[in-house]
Amino acid sequence: MLANPMFWQQEMETMERPALEALQLKRLRQTVRRLGRVPFYRGKFLEAGIKPEQIKTAADVRRLPFTTAADLRENYPEGLLAVPRQEVLRLHTSSGTTGKPKALFFSRRDVDRAADLIARAFCMTGVTRRDVFQNMMSYGLFTGGLVMHYGAEKIGCMVIPAGPGTSERQLLLMQDFGTTVVHITPSYAFYFADFLEKKGIDARRDLALRKAFVGAEPYTEETKRKIEAALGIDVYNSYGLTEMNGPGVAFECGEKCGLHLWEDNFVLEIINPATGEPMGEGEPGELVLTSINREAMPLLRYRTRDLTCVIPGACACGRTHRRIHRITGRSDDMLIVRGVNIFPQQIERVLMSMPQIGRNYLIQLEGLDEMTVKVELSPTGFDGEVGHLTQLQNEVAEKLRAELWVRPKVELVASGSLPVTEGKAKRVVDKRSL
Amino acid sequence: MSTVKLVAVFAENRPGQAARVTGILARANINIRSVTVASSGNFGVMKLLVNHPDLALHALKREGFAATLTEVIAVETADKPGALHAVAQCLAAHDINLCNTSGFVANDRAILVIEVEDPAQACRILKKEGLHILTQKETLTI
Predict the structure, then answer these.
(1) Helix ranges (DSSP H) in A361-418
(2) Strongest mean pLDDT among A146-150, A217-221, B134-138
(3) Which of A68, A122, B7, B14 to pair with B50, CA 20 to 30 A apart?
């Protein structure tokens, strides 16, 4: 029988839940035993009064201690390494913006397992060896480059390790080699769409582009639709974090209804970020992940700070691994303005629903809790009337007030005037003197 | 009907923005006959009467500016007291609202640039009144 090209590891991807959960428990127990040799976790186990052999059921995961980003920084560089140094094949670090980076080690097996998860994603979105994959993420310490690259090579499609580079060069590669799939951040996708528009290039007509794997920054459904419309492609949401291999932790299948999180590799929990207690089924909360199929540096109950929920029910694609909703925010992205909790994604959702408003925005907090949202005027949203622009500005402010319960000041700025990075976009500038 | 096209461009209200617009037009070899700026808080709209509106629009858009063409009427009036009043009075009599209006005097000719909701209708009325409505070409040779 020929293997189904929509699956990379069909048996694993479609494993019946009881078998999958048994496998999870087996791997969790192996991981806990392995971590009993790591001084950091040995200390944590002692503190919590548990012994590795006491982990007997899936629910016992909740008896284990959390691991936080701060733990990774404090134990930088090698404090969480769980294998002898000579077993380490590769180092990645997180793109942490403040303080020490977080280091993550890969053994040879870890590199291979991470690549398999990427290969699953490629297959389930219909990528084949006939495709040309241009990886527009930064290579180097950032996982978005190499981890994705190794997965793509497993599929056997042609890989162009373009890296972020200039848009001119990206375009040239796409034209010369017929790129069909790209891996890109949402902010760069917008920037690139604008770039093509200015060059008078219609991606539908002039390029072979069909799909984009978009990740590394949370983004909204509206953003996704705008990218799809601007480039005439299918966008698949990719979720990952350096601490859990990088990209490929969870990925959208062809149904585009949530991201399958590979439960043979990760134990997933959704908790209340304030109390650490589990949320009810389908309720939104912070995603907590335990890596159960890693050797060099597995982490227990890692607090991702990403907010999501589990989508109930089975997926039409046949995969049994549960789906998470697209990330709706990061618990540490939350802004408190005049006593109200605000997530940048709420603002993004409002802006992306307004066609007169461009693709980039900046939230500025200044003085005593003053919030200004700078939005770009879409070139097509201008009719020459200053009065209509004032109206538009008020309309944006009013829609934001309805969503946030705080009325921000809205400033309409020229298209392309807000900073765009080719990596992760910085959406919030906090200069408050509180 | 002989309406005139103005190039309208969105610009942020901060130093250097007008210079960017005029720089682009200069490089495109566009001659500016008149300019107005309507500002509102942190942004404004520049409106320019130029010799090649379509070229100017293209040049500005290529540089990423939000720009468009707006149709206006250029009416020649006498350079004497009461001349503007005569135009305003005539439009008022027909219940036509004046939106943005500006004017300039060149070579002893007074030109009034007016924006109204329905330029075609206003044109007919003003012509009937015996006023001279300039074509785009004429605005360049004043």
Answers:
(1) 386-404
(2) A146-150
(3) B14
Report the complex ipTM: 0.82
One DSSP character per residue, A219-280 reads --HHHHHHHHHHHTSEEEEEEEEGGGTEEEEEEE-TT-SSEEE-TTTEEEEEE-TTT-PBPP
Q: Which residue of A has its CA nearest to B100?
A: A385
Query: What pLDDT sits at residue A99?
Result: 60
For chains A and B, CB pairs below 8 A equal 59
Chain B residues near residue A378 by CB distance under 8 angstroms: 66
Say how far apart CA A429 and CA A391 lie, in whole Å: 26
Q: Inspect the interface and report whether the beta carbons of A384 and B44 lie closer than 8 Å.
A: no
- Buried/exposed code over A321-330 (b: 16+ C-beta within 10 A; e: otherwise): bbbbbbbbbb
B21 CA: distance to closest CA in chain A (Å): 12
* Token output for A152: 């793509």
User: Is A413–B38 a contact, with Cβ atoms under 8 angstroms apart?
Assistant: no
A 45-104 near B (Cβ less than 8 A):
none
Q: Is the pLDDT of residue B47 over 60?
A: yes
Q: Is residue A282 pLDDT above 70, yes or no?
A: yes
Within 8 A by CB and 6+ apart from A106, the residues are: A88, A89, A90, A91, A92, A114, A245, A296, A297
pLDDT band, residue A343 (cuts 50/70/90) = confident
Q: What pLDDT shows up at residue A314? A: 94
> Inter-chain contact A384–B8, Cβ cutoff 8 Å?
yes
The DSSP call for residue A67 is: B
Would you state the pLDDT for residue A218? 82
List CB contacts (< 8 A) between A382 and chain B: 8, 10, 66-68
Contact (CB, 8 A) for A36 and A298: no
Which residues in B lie closer than 8 A to residue A197 (C-beta atoms)? none
Query: If pLDDT is split at 50, 70 and 90, which confidence band does A417 have?
Result: confident
Alpha-carbon gap: B108 to the closest alpha carbon of chain A (Å): 30
CB-based contact (8 Å) between A200 and chain B? Answer: no
Judge: A415–B47 Cβ closer than 8 Å, yes or no. Answer: no
Q: How many CB atoms lie within 10 A of CB A364?
A: 17
Mean pLDDT, residues A88-107 taken together: 83
Report the percentage of chain A scoring pLDDT > 90.
71
| A53-76 confidence digits (pLDDT tens) | 999 998 999 999 999 998 998 999
Average pLDDT over residues A137-158: 95
Q: Pick the residue of A382, A383, A393, A417 with the most B CBs within 10 A to test the interface with B by mutation.
A: A382
Phi, psi (5° rounding) for residue A134? -105, 115
Determine the Cα–Cα distance for residues A115 and A152; give it in Å rounded to an integer.
8
Structure confidence at residue A96 (pLDDT):
55
Place of tokens 């720089």: B23
Angle at A217 between CA A215 and CA A219, to 5 degrees: 90
Tell me whether strands A335-337 and A340-342 are parallel, antiparallel or unpaired: antiparallel
Candidate from B6, B10, B70 with C-beta closest to A377: B10
